Amino acid sequence: MRYKQNNQVPLAPTGLAISKSANNHPYLQWPANAEPDIYQYVVEKYAGEFGWVALTQTANRYYEDVTESYCTAVPPAQCEAGHWVYYRLKAVDLQSLVSNPSGSVGTYVLGGIPYKIGGEGENQKTPEKYTLTQNYPNPFNPSTTIDFSIKENSNVTLKIYDMLGKEVALLVNERKEPGKYSVTFNASELPSGIYVYRLDANDFTATKKLMLVK
């Protein structure tokens, strides 16, 4: 049975499911809402301190999050640096009324988008571990600083992605000696929004989010 809800908020979507795509990314699927006037769905992802953020609006009933990847390492112990990600949905009808969120689904993944660093190291003391710190200032406009530490000679990348998984900036892509580094990200050519930055150094991966406000 399908229902018509004139001038009423749509029902919250149900049946959201998550699996692994052929490309090794989280893949979301869900059944259509009962109301005939639903024209799109908002896919949201939990972004830590930023709460739930919208990834996309789509008329489809599926979504692949290319900013996250499942770990395929052998042995599996190399997957310990992964993290949990969570998703939920909202339905939007032809009157632009938005439903309450669906129940959330989660999965354990290796990490988000890779990042590359550009900047000079401060090598007075060799770091004991790899680290990626929160950018500062945050929120920012138009420039912000990202610091990270490298504990051993590593091939390092630092990239910036938007929330749809599109690479928007490549900050570093080179081999680095042990030390502490800083890189400045200038987002003057980008629109306001939340972006993802990821550090890859040998087997280490870390991601964080930053907010550009213009």
Q: Quick one: overall form?
A: elongated
Poorly predicted parts: 111-124
* Tally of DSSP helical segments: 0
Secondary-structure class: mainly beta
| Helicity level | under 10%
Q: Tell me the major beta sheet.
A: 4 strands, antiparallel
Beta-strand proportion: over 45%
Q: What is the mean predicted local confidence, pLDDT? A: 82
Order of helices and strands: EEEEEEEEEEEEEEE
What would you report as the Rg, rounded to the nearest angstrom? 20 Å
> What's the CATH first level of the largest domain?
Mainly Beta
CATH architecture name of the largest domain: Sandwich
What is the terminal-to-terminal distance?
Answer: 46 Å
Tally of discrete structural domains: 2
CATH H-level superfamily title of the largest domain: Immunoglobulins
Secondary structure tally: strands: 15
CATH topology of the largest domain: Immunoglobulin-like
- The main sheet orders its strands as 4-3-6-7
What does this entry look like structurally?
- By secondary structure, the protein is mostly beta strands.
- The protein folds into 2 domains: about 90 residues, Sandwich (Immunoglobulin-like); about 90 residues, Sandwich (Immunoglobulin-like), CATH 2.60.40.2550.
- The protein is about 0% helix and about 45% strand.
- It is built from no helices and 15 strands.
- A 4-stranded antiparallel sheet has the order 4-3-6-7, with no helix packed on it. Strands 8-13-10-9 form a 4-stranded antiparallel sheet, with no helix packed on it.
- Strand 14 and strand 15 form a beta hairpin.
- The protein is elongated.
- The relative contact order is 0.18.
